[in-house]
Structure to design on (406 residues):
């Protein structure tokens, strides 16, 4: 039996995805023999409804000076985070003379740069030194630390209490969640707000987007689980806002209990989640079966295409692609290479399967017949960019909402 990371209730995992490497652990040939793997099992607590990894690698293995993800490489994500920042400023900073916002996991400053441009006091808390350095080079105030209550107290000593705590695609990474919520409660002014967004469990279940599950994502949140977690710290969920990012995310807005009006959409979403069965074991057993069907369908399609002698390239060396590749048993015999625009990944090999990662230019210089779209959450941006590939007769292999060729 395993103990829930949130409420300590004992429960059993409902499935394993097998041995998985570090999702962002793109590596050189000489590192193959020392590559780290862990058993990626998942379960959902029957008491607090928190979907979670059973085992997670140490945080230093995942977030360090070699971390290979930079948010600022996507134009659409830049626009998304600007809108996020504007909603904080417009909805919650109207009555503050000198507002102060803190973002954890601030990466290269893609969101905080907006506050910097508006001359609003801000601070990023980013554990990966290489991406924090990029933010600092842009004039964005950033410290290299992991956020918790002790970090919050240090921030208060130097800057005072915050009007807003924000995070995007970060909270789901953190196993010691009670320390985070304690830190949030400590950091905020009494009427301050916490606003974070992450991939949404409801969408993962509905669309079988199991690639949202990897070493960094220790949790997949729902309104059910978030409200129960924060209630343990006398805080409440006051609003929710669905987002299209990452194949379907949810933005959660929280505050100290009784300090802000609770939107009626919160209760409506929780009722919807209960209808979807996010509090029932049979829902997750059905999800397991859907994952297995996905694997059969994708591997069969790739085998069929390769049988014709056609070349397949992976498009976008994402963290999510690590789960797809390793769970489905995809190798360099199946796809020739993965192209990516991130320099730190180029010239290396994919985690686990060791498929070569090339610069994006290699894709455009010699189009393959097929491209397996790992970056499906940016599909509109990618397909607009790759009109030349399609004009040349190139076809996309996609798997959301279903495995098919377009």
């Amino acid at each position: 039996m395993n103990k829930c990371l949130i409420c300590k209730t004992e429960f059993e995992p409902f499935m394993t995805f097998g041995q998985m490497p570090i999702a962002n652990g793109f590596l050189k040939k000489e590192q193959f023999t020392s590559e780290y793997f862990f058993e990626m099992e998942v379960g959902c607590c029957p008491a607090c409804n928190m979907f979670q990894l059973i085992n997670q690698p140490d945080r230093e293995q995942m977030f360090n000076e070699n971390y290979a993800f930079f948010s600022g490489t996507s134009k659409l994500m830049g626009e998304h985070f600007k809108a996020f920042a504007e909603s904080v400023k417009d909805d919650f900073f109207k009555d503050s003379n000198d507002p102060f916002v803190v973002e954890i996991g601030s990466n290269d400053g893609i969101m905080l740069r907006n506050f910097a441009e508006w001359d609003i006091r801000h601070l990023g808390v980013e554990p990966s030194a290489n991406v924090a350095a990029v933010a600092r080079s842009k004039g964005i105030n950033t410290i290299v630390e992991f956020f918790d209550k002790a970090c919050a107290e240090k921030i208060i000593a130097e800057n005072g209490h915050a009007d807003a705590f924000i995070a995007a695609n970060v909270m789901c990474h953190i196993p010691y969640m009670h320390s985070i919520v304690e830190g949030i409660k400590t950091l905020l002014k009494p009427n301050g707000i916490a606003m974070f967004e992450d991939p949404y469990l409801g969408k993962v279940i509905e669309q079988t987007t199991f690639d949202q599950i990897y070493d960094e994502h220790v949790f997949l949140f729902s309104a059910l689980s978030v409200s129960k977690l924060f209630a343990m710290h006398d805080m409440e969920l006051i609003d929710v806002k669905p987002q299209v990012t990452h194949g379907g995310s949810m933005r959660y807005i929280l505050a100290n209990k009784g300090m802000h009006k609770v939107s009626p959409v919160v209760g409506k979403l929780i009722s919807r989640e209960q209808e979807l069965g996010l509090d029932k074991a049979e829902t997750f057993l059905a999800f397991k079966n859907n994952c297995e069907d996905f694997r059969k369908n994708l591997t069969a399609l790739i085998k069929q295409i390769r049988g014709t002698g056609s070349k397949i390239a992976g498009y976008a060396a994402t963290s999510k692609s690590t789960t797809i590749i390793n769970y489905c048993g995809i190798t360099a015999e199946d796809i020739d290479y993965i192209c990516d625009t991130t320099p730190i990944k180029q010239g290396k090999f994919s985690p686990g399967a060791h498929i070569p990662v090339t610069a994006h230019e290699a894709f455009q210089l010699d189009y393959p017949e097929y491209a397996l779209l790992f970056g499906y959450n940016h599909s509109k941006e990618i397909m607009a960019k790759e009109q030349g590939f399609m004009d040349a007769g190139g076809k996309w292999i996609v798997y959301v909402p279903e495995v098919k060729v377009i």
